[in-house]
Amino acid sequence: MHYHKLIIALTETNRIMKKIDKIEIELIMESILNQLHIKQPEFKDGLNSLPDQIKKKIVNKLTKEKNETTFISTLAEIDFGLLFNKLGFDLEYEKPYDNKQTPDWTLSIGDSKAICEVYRLGKSKEDEQISDFEKQIIKKVRELEFNYFVKFKFENQYFDISMYDINSIVSDLNKWFLSSSKSVGEKTVIMDNFCFEVSKINTKKNHLSCHGSLRQIDIKRNKIIQSEYQDENKITKKLKIYKDLISQTNYPYFIGIYLDFACGLCYEDFEEYFLGKVVGFDCEVDPDYEASLEDRDYGTEWTELGIFYKNPQLSGLIIYDKSKYNLLLNPLKNQVIYKDDNLLILNNLKKHV
User: Fold this and answer.
1) Which of 100, 142, 290, 313 has the fewest Cβ atoms within 10 Å of its own Cβ atom?
2) Is residue 28 pLDDT above 80, yes or no?
3) H/E element holding 256?
4) Which pTM was predicted?
């Protein structure tokens, strides 16, 4: 939904939360929640469409949440809940099971039940750190008393921020401006990485106006590719975390993936990497489809992820991308989602997603 853009803007205040006590943090997040209700009526309407017990649980969770990333991830969970609610499923949010696990959504229709765990795929931790570092530099640079517009960029997109001191960077820039008058187009590179270029003479103000350039998104496919011997990524963990629970309940299991623009990935990446050359086939109309899957070894470089359709725990992926939900089903017909008891769930998802 469009309210995610509002949240990203509103939660910039959360960057300084380490200096704010717990009560103030809760008040800020509660204020953000109130802004959502006021500025995005569809968010309020969506919450009101959910069962009262779920609505109260979600509102209480959002009001008390003090971490920006978790706050936005909870909104992604809500989006999937609203989808399932719209499709006519009965819902339970963070239902506790006997093994004390609480998957995000348990959905049921008739006598059929399924589980969906939601993962919001956004910026990597490294992207977040460098983005924050850039904002801190720009803030300090704007305090310098020179009448120029300045463009700022990193020569190297990824680097260890702990190796650099912002005050030293700004001090070197100050010395460069003091050394002589500058013309449009002149630039300096400080510490071989921080490039400042004069873009305009500012005749109305006596301090620098500094703006960063749009950083190119580095598409990190290791966010979804799980190569052998590497540490498990988040989606692999989501795939495996409910392995025992799914075996016990025999419920279909879906991973809902909310793609933020900042992650640099799209639905087609998942379709290509998860299904490989079997994209475009339909086991219900192609009699050789099942055999082709069994005879070929797609996605071996993905280990758990690439051969997800051979994993009895995963029924499929539901991917939110560009305001649209996409369904990637496990194509093997012996998977639990294709059993007669689960056909209501299967047909309902295929009809609407």
Assistant:
1) 100
2) no
3) strand 253-259
4) 0.65
